[in-house]
Amino acid sequence: MSVLIVGSIALDDIKTPAAEHPNLLGGSASYGAVAASFFSPVNLVGIVGEDFPKEHIELLRSRRIDLEGLQIVAGKTFRWSGEYMLDMNTRETRSVELNVFEHFTPALPANYKSTPIVLLANIAPDLQHHVLDQVGKPRFVIADTMDLWINIAKDSLTRLLGRVDMLILNDGEARQFTGETNLVKAARAIQALGPKYVAIKKGEHGCLLFGSDGEFFSCPAFPLEEIHDPTGAGDSFAGGLAGVLARESDSGPVDFGALRRAVVFGSVLASFNVEAFSLERLKTVDAAQIEDRSRLLRLMSQFETD
Ligand code: AMP
Question: Which domain holds residue 124?
């Protein structure tokens, strides 16, 4: 089973307290697609300009990522620049250049329209709607978002929630979107708008997964001594999660058990991703390392009394 991923494909300039690197491959769909590709084939929908380096296209192509839905058009690729503070959690956007994104209309190739699992990675909610308008009846639709859309496109985002099975966002965004301080209340408020499942990411403190009828799972973040670049952690989490759902979805329904497993693998992919800038760590990690870390993470989250 495949996963359909739409989102941004970017060239990023990143500054952390320790280092600064320009012109890196980034974007929610790049991280999401490579993370998902460890578990399932990916159908990618996005846009880049003619300046987009061929080596990045080759990386995506080498990973079971179908690029028929990738538009390469005249103009410059979307650019984003961010700076991390000393805690490596707080981030400031230094600049955004929409470039080819300004006139982007996602168009799905015919064979993408029946992809069973859909990940609407972080991108303007209107574009996420546009993708959903073109698909048949996916088994499971996941949406990711960011503070920017809560600020400037809240109505569209709120309507989107009525069309998705799961929303992924971070703790600050959940509070900002709902006006609730308490994350349990925030999750319930989001569920009341449509999604049966909500995943709230808390950076180094892990992730909370809310289902229906009180279903709840808390996944720790894998403890890392060295974090080099947090960029794309959320996108790798979402991509890994969606890829696992696609891998498992021919063997059973997308239920809370499947989502728990998917959240563990999503957290593992996020943990590898932050070990290096851009997608450098995702390029080198292998299936055995992913399995090992997921086993460790599952052990860490078990608590038994005797
Ligand atoms: P994350 O660290 O998971 O929040 O995602 C970081 C990635 O999001 C970067 O590689 C950026 O290129 C991308 N990004 C930043 N701003 C936007 C935006 N407004 N729309 C889509 N993608 C964005």
Answer: 3-300
Residue 103: inside a domain, yes or no?
A: yes
Work out how many domains the chain is built from and give that number: 1
In a domain, 175, yes or no: yes
Residue given tokens 């720790």 in the structure block: 220
Q: Is the CB of 122 under 6 A from ligand 1?
A: yes
Tokens of 260: 């728990």
**What are phi and psi for residue 139, nearest 5 degrees?**
-70, -35
Give nearest CA residue, ligand 1 atom 15. Answer: 80
* Rounded Cα gap, residues 91 and 83, in angstroms: 6
Q: Let me know if residue 305 belongs to a domain.
A: no
CA gap 56, 133 in Å, rounded: 29
Which amino acid residue places its CA nearest to atom 22 of ligand 1?
8
Q: Is the CB of 29 within 6 Å of ligand 1?
A: no
Q: Is the CB of 36 under 6 A from ligand 1?
A: no
Is the model's pTM score more than 0.90?
yes
Q: Is residue 70 within 8 Å of residue 45, measured between CB atoms?
A: yes
With respect to residue 306, please indicate whether it lies within any of the assigned structural domains.
no
- CA-to-CA separations, 45 to 3, 186, 304, in angstroms, rounded: 11, 31, 44
76-134 pLDDT per residue, tens: 999 999 999 999 888 999 999 999 999 999 999 999 999 999 999 999 999 999 999 99
Q: Is the pLDDT of residue 304 over 80?
A: no
Is the minimum distance from the CB of 237 to ligand 1 under 6 angstroms? no
| Ligand 1 probe mutation, 30, 79, 80, most atoms within 8 A of CB | 80
CA nearest ligand 1 atom 6, residue: 232
Residue 74 sits in a domain whose CATH number is: 3.40.1190.20
Query: pLDDT above 70 covers what percent of the chain?
Result: 98
Residue nearest to atom 7 of ligand 1 (CA): 27
Per-residue pLDDT tens over the stretch 63-78: 989 999 999 999 999 9
